Amino acid sequence: MKTLAPLESIRFCILLALAAGPTYGYALQTRIDEDADDRVHIDHSTIYKALARLEADGDIKRSASRSDSRQHIYGLTPRGRRTLKIESDRLARAVRLLEDRFK
Length: 103
Hints:
Blueprint: H1 9-18, E1 23-24, H2 25-35, H3 44-57, E2 60-64, E3 72-76, H4 78-101
Antiparallel strand pairs: 1-3, 2-3
Helix pairs in contact: 1-2
């Protein structure tokens, strides 16, 4: 199993988007775009590759949609929440260091 942090930016974006609640792939891509204020667009194939890695690492869980068995719903696991918190704390510390150094 992979260490909890630091994360590649795509993994962080996915976990951050899933913190709003479970969702399916296209809606996840939309959330990521909105979270990035449309400054970053991540291709859907890149998202699905990262989802597979996050699932293999135990950070997310995939389940079949109740309305369409071909559609998958992705959600955070407890480990995924811990991973997101650790990475968020690491990034917040980096921002504080930058602010201190550019005073």
